[in-house]
Write a structure and sequence with these properties.
single chain; about 725 residues; Glycoside hydrolase family 9 protein; CenC_carb-bd
């Protein structure tokens, strides 16, 4: 690592003689330096286990390493400003006298290092303070303690770590662009066309719709909406729905403020339908992603096939102490920004793709039942491409079933979190099967039953295999109704769930729809509510299946499910009308959840189902306006879909789509949905940049913000479903 230093001062202060930190008018750049809330977001090398003891972060430093960076403790995503001084201050001790290295540097090449010092530690805690001037501007700096090269092992303890400096406040100055917020991709010719304008005025404003030459083609006055609770904005709404002339490059002007450009047309969502579905081929595990289908920038070798340095997924052992078998669990989709594969998320995503097919078939949407729609290896095999893609995941789900018991392993992923970036075929981590869970077992029962029903037309042998696995899983879940996945974990998401009554109901509905066996009916107990559905709450899917397939269920059950779908859809329409930025997602507690954009798309899917049941145009219009929200008509003037809109997300958290931190790697592929605003701010980038944010503004397009800007298969499956719906109108 090179070190480009411009130290302005360096001193060591004894613990008894603390001085006032320099640059007291600057900003603290580290999080949790006193370890009052555990050790996050501090990390340590895999060979250097760390823990919080008596309010200090202590680590076991190994002997036998070579380079200083072979054993480290650090914190990432530290903002640095060129020409600004930074003061690093910390208290440290070691179980034997040692000299370590402490740096403030860039986390990747060229590893520019504005601060590089060698504090000498003893068993007595001492406070150290160093000041240096940064010679780089970057939001992804790194503060490290480097202990590699030790000849004997020892214990290092740290406390009260602080890095103060810079003149930009945490989060910097956010430029949200024009206050005139539109769907940056475009509006359907026969659909609603509304924009939201941030303006505190209490009187209507004049608006003008301009064509690409700047000529006004329509004009009108805004409706004053006033306060929008989720964003904290005062807004107006402009309605230009009467304009039905197709064209490109339209803009909306309100006074001297002009929106980003957009189109009006009849075929706006064909590309998004394809791109949202192509997301899944991009994220396949166990197969080369070929340039012939995705282009050179996105091509990569197959990941996790047991080819060095990979250690799986062809023979994956159980997490030590949990079982003694191995399974071939190749294939499937990487779940999100990491390399984990999770049954409960994967089954929901596969279900939505298969449901997209069932909906397309029932509504005579020929694209949804077309072979050749997508650029995938299976195109041209006579099977609808959306089913080919879903099968790639279903085959993985079947491999996760334990032979003999019928139970299903909850997930498989790396022993520890992989570095960022890590291309799948270069992942050298050990992989493990995590213990079976009732939730995962029932997810396979549900998706397997749906698979059997659908694939009977296309591949009877595969359909029989799906049904056998589904019924075996059902019996196993009945015998083991309380195997719960534990919270937390390392190397992958927990996806824990201690209430599986909803999974029982969903699986029973799918099994009854496929087999007609009345023994499943008593277990269909859940009801669709305004809370909708998610991977952790699948009960609403039972009602959606009953409503879509009324002829397969008792009449009274079908009528009740239909009523609930319409009632919930009506509530979403009311919630959209109540907000300045029309969004069917309106959390009762005012806090946006992780993956809030999928709450929007899942709600839109329910409204779309209501439209299919009734042909009531209110639901159609509401789904189109939900797409407006996703594509830019929101509090951040942000399209959450890569490649769709001038201010579109393009730095989502992903191990391969990591251009932001490695320019040799690609940005996310078009059609990738970002998780969106999340009031929880669980990652350090969000905590540094979004503290105090209004719920609808708790988002940052940064690769380090995994709690607001990750991608996930069950988010993109719902986007694909809605894109297919809007494209079929």
């Amino acid at each position: 690592m090179s070190a480009t230093l411009r130290l302005s001062a360096a001193c060591v202060l004894l613990l008894a003689g603390l001085a006032t930190p320099a640059h007291a008018d600057s900003y603290e750049r580290l999080l949790n330096g006193s370890f009052d809330s555990g050790k996050d977001p501090w990390w340590s090398s895999q060979n250097t286990p760390s823990r919080v003891e008596s309010g200090r972060l202590c680590a076991d430093v190994p002997a036998g390493t070579t380079n200083p960076w072979d054993s480290m403790i650090g914190q990432n995503d530290v903002p640095l400003e060129d020409g600004q001084p930074y003061t690093l201050r910390f208290t440290a001790s070691a179980s034997r006298d040692v000299t370590i290295r402490t740096t403030v540097q860039l986390a990747g090449p060229p590893y520019t290092t504005p601060l590089d010092q060698r504090p000498e530690l003893t068993a007595t805690p001492r406070t150290f303070e160093y000041t240096a001037t940064s010679n780089v501007s970057d939001s992804h700096g790194q503060m490290t303690f480097q202990m590699g090269g030790a000849t004997e092992p020892y214990t290092l303890c740290l406390d009260e770590i602080s890095l103060v400096g810079g003149v930009l406040p945490p989060g910097g100055v956010r430029d949200l662009g024009s206050p005139v917020r539109v769907n940056q991709h475009g509006y359907a010719t026969s659909g609603p066309k509304r924009a939201t304008i941030v303006n505190p005025g209490t009187e209507p404003l004049e608006w003008r719709l301009l064509d690409k030459r700047g000529a006004a083609v329509a004009q009108g006055r805004t409706r004053v909406h006033g306060a929008d609770a989720m964003s904290g904005d005062q807004v107006h709404v402009a309605d230009f729905s009467s304009v039905r002339k197709a064209g490109t490059g339209y803009t909306l002007a309100v006074g001297d403020q002009v929106s980003l450009p957009f189109d009006i047309g009849d075929d706006l969502y064909d590309g998004l339908r394809r791109d949202a579905l192509a997301y899944f081929y991009h994220n396949r595990s166990g197969i080369p992603i070929e340039a012939a289908y995705v282009g050179d920038a996105y091509a990569r070798p197959a990941g996790h096939l047991g080819v060095a340095p990979n250690q799986g997924d062809t023979r994956v052992p159980c997490l030590p102490g949990t079982c003694d078998h191995t399974l071939d669990v190749r294939g499937g989709w990487y779940d999100a920004g990491d390399h984990g594969k999770y049954v409960v998320n994967g089954a929901l995503a596969a279900w939505q793709l298969m449901d997209l097919y069932e909906r397309s078939r029932g509504q005579n949407d020929l694209k949804g039942t077309r072979d050749g729609l997508l650029r995938i290896p299976e195109a041209g095999n006579g099977v609808p491409d959306v089913l080919d893609e879903a099968r790639w995941e279903v085959e993985f789900l079947l491999r996760m079933q334990v032979p003999g018991s019928g139970l299903v392993h909850h997930k498989t992923h790396d022993a520890a979190w992989t570095g960022h970036p890590t291309i799948p075929h270069l992942d050298a981590q050990s992989r493990y099967l995590y213990p079976p869970s009732t939730a995962a077992t029932l997810n396979l029962a549900a998706a397997g039953a749906q698979c059997a029903r659908i694939w009977k037309t296309w591949d009877r042998a595969f359909a029989r295999r799906c049904l056998e696995a589904a019924e075996t899983a059902w019996r196993a879940a009945r015998a083991h109704p309380d195997l719960y996945a534990p919270p937390g974990g390392e190397g992958g998401g927990a996806y824990d769930d201690t209430n599986v009554s909803d999974e029982f109901s969903w699986a029973a509905a799918e099994l009854y729809a496929t087999t007609g066996k009345r023994s499943y009916l008593p277990f269909v107990t859940t009801k669709l509510t305004a809370d909708g559905f998610s991977w952790q709450s699948t009960g609403a899917l039972a009602d959606l299946t009953v409503a879509r397939l009324p002829g397969r269920f008792p009449a009274a059950m079908s009528v009740a499910a239909r009523k609930r779908v319409l009632s919930v859809a009506d509530g979403y329409v009311r919630d959209m009308n109540a907000q300045g930025y029309a969004n069917p997602y309106l959390p009762a507690d005012g806090k946006y959840v992780w993956g809030s954009t999928s709450a929007t798309t899942n709600s839109a899917m329910i409204m779309a189902t209501a439209y299919d049941l009734t042909r009531d145009r209110r639901y159609r219009q509401a789904v189109l306006e939900s797409m407006d929200y996703l594509l830019g008509r929101n509090a951040l003037n942000q399209s959450y879909v890569t490649g769709y809109g001038e201010r579109a997300s393009h730095n989502q958290h992903h191990r391969f789509w990591a251009h932001q931190i490695d320019p040799s790697l690609p940005t996310p592929a078009p059609g990738s949905l970002a998780g969106g605003p999340n009031s929880g701010l669980q990652d350090p980038v969000a905590q540094r940049n979004l503290a105090g944010c209004a719920s609808a503004k708790c988002y940052i397009d940064d690769i380090g913000s995994w709690s607001t800007n990750e991608v996930a298969i069950n988010w993109n499956s719902s986007l694909a479903w809605i894109a297919a719906f809007t494209d079929s109108l």
